Each structure stands twice: as structure tokens, then as C-alpha cells.
Amino acid sequence: MSQTGSLTNWQIFFLMTQTQVGFAILTLPNTLQSTSKGDGWMSVLLAGVALQMFLVIIWLLLRRFPNLNYAEITKFLLGKYVGNFVNMIMYLYFIVTASFVLLRFASIIKEHLLTITPYWVIGLLMMLTCTYLAISDIRIIARFFGLISILFLFLFGISFFSFLLPLDLHHILPLGNTGIKEIAIGSKDCLLAILGFEVILFLYPLASKKGTTFLKVITWANVFVTGLTTYFVILCIMIFSESVLKQIKYPVIYFLRPLNFQMVDRIDLLFISIWIVPLAASIVIYIYMSSKSLSFFKGKPYRLVLMNSTLIFVLFTIAKKDPDSQELYSNFVEYLSYAVVFAIPCILLLFSYLVKKREKEVSY
């Protein structure tokens, strides 16, 4: 797992994109109706630009410590005790985020596919599958992610059937009608919807090509995810009116429901079945990152993965029993992401310049 030069550029690209493409894209067109409305696609593009700025900041930090991952950088810069405390915050974030993704995944499957199957059965089956893959070496995970990325072509192909429906271009016109302030507020929701890019914090030491090449790879991954998200947001806005989008929780799923063909029925169910794979990929990589965050753990790696998976499933079952707490759970994940994904890397980069520390000072 710690071998350097073991991940190719394509593998890093697929790891990043598969982690980012999750359940949030399914609900994003609905979420944006409370802020940027018909200009929601502009909020997505603005979020993509903001995300690129954070990617550059993260890249500048990782470049100063080319053979250390996120958890090792914190200990090197902040010391053993403070570093381990920060790593525990990161560990909590990855565990809670994974359980939140699992919660949303079970809700989608329960609502659209397995309506009479208990939530805990759906969650358990998903966790068993994800744990089996998360125990593997990161190179095996990367190869699997690269293999399943071909499913994006099927998702695009299925979405093209929506052009058979009435599309109203006036739903996105006039451009900028909601105002710059609302578009900027909507970009915050978009930024949270494409979280998952933090995986690069643990991939840089394993990259076969570092430096500007690594930056180009993660930049193209950001362009791909931003473009994919913008495409689905525009599609949903053109198909549904503003009043309808406010009522549909998963518009990316529902826009295919009216389509019926002689040999294929319920294309929306086929779409969901394919989308399950990116959701599972997100959980796998969050289990992996949570395991790498506890750098002080001295046991066998698979035991740590099993412990993390069990903790994720326990949190999932607790949150599912109390529907009122799910909104609080979502807010907790949001605010914790601000600290772990955005604030801590910026602070670490600034601190590394202030104390003038680089990896070359580390003794091996």
C-alpha cells in the first residue's frame, strides 16, 4: 500500500472521479431550486472553478512532501500529539461521510428498487461488498475503479433518451436572472455535492508521476466531474419546471421515468442500477482513507478496515432509526468537511511556509 510510483495517471483520474460522483448529483437540481433556480448550472461551473483553486492549494502542500500522505504531513508539521488529534478529526470525517453515503444509498434503493427489503439488509449487503474491496491493495482498487468507469458511457447513453421528452430552453433563460449573489450561494451546495477530491491527499505519494503532471491529472478529473454535473443539472432544469423541481427529491432519476419502449421498460431503474456502482466506489475509498488516517495503528491493515466498516454500519443503523436526526447528520457532515477538506490543508500549507519545513528535512 505504501509503495511509491505504483499508480498511473489514469488510475488517479479514475479514483478521483469515481469518489466524487456519488448520490449528491442525484439531488443537486432539487437543492439548487432554493437558491440559483434556473441558473443552477452556472453555480456548478462556479463551484468547479473554486474547487480548482483548492486543488492547486492541496497540490502545493503535497509537492512539499512528495512521499508523505495527509496523515503523515500533519504529524510532521504539527508534532506527534497535535498531529494525531488532527488525524482523529479526519478519521471521524471519513467515517461519518461514509455512513452518510450509505444512508442515502439505502434510501434510494429502498424507495425505487427494493421497497419491502429492510434498510439494515440493504446497508449490510453494501458494506460487505465494499469491505471486501477496501481490504485490497490500493492498486487493485484503482484497477477496479478504472474498469467500472466505462459505466459512465452507459449513463450518458441512457440520459440521451431524455431528449425524446419535451425540453424547454426558456427554463434556463434569461441567463443570470436570479442574480450573482444567489448563484454564488448555490455554488456552495454544488461544492459539497462534488466532494471526494480529498482522496488525492492520500494518492500523491503513490503517483508514478508527480509535480505538474499530477496537477494536470487532477485538473482534468475536476473538469470531467464539473462537466458531468453541469450536464445533468441543465437536463433536469430543461425537463422540469421550477415548481416541479422543488417537489422532486431525485430529479436525475425521475426524468427517465416517463420513457417506455417495446423491449425496455422503466429505464430509470436501469439508470439507478448502474449508479449503484459509483456510490459503492465512494464508500470503498472513504473506508480506505479512514484506515490511512490512523497512522498510529500498529495492527494488521485488514483489522482496521473491518473495524471501520463495522463503525460505519453502526452509525448507519443509528441514524436510520431516527429520521428527524438525518438533517442534523447532514449538517454535521457539511461543517466537518469545511474543516477537513478546505481549512486544514490551507493551514498546513501556510504553516509549512512559516516554519520553512519540507520533506527533505525528514530522516528516513
Give a verbal description of the structure.
The chain has 364 residues and is mainly alpha-helical. It has a single domain, classed as Amino acid/polyamine transporter I, CATH 1.20.1740. The chain is built from 15 helices and no strands. The chain has helices at 9-20, 24-31, 40-64, 70-78, 80-112, 119-134, 138-148, 151-159, 180-193, 212-239, 242-247, 251-254, 267-293, 301-321, 325-354.
| Average pLDDT | 84
Number of domains: 1
- Largest sheet descriptor: none
SS-based class: mainly alpha
Q: CATH top level?
A: Mainly Alpha
CATH topology (fold) name: Amino acid/polyamine transporter I
Shape: globular
- How many β-strand runs? 0
- The N- to C-terminal Cα distance equals 18 Å
What's the gist of this structure?
The protein is mainly alpha-helical and 364 residues long. The chain is built from 15 helices and no strands.
Topology at a glance:
Elements: H1 9-20, H2 24-31, H3 40-64, H4 70-78, H5 80-112, H6 119-134, H7 138-148, H8 151-159, H9 180-193, H10 212-239, H11 242-247, H12 251-254, H13 267-293, H14 301-321, H15 325-354
Helix pairs in contact: 1-7, 1-10, 1-13, 2-9, 3-9, 3-10, 3-15, 4-5, 5-6, 5-13, 5-14, 5-15, 6-13, 6-14, 7-13, 8-13, 13-14
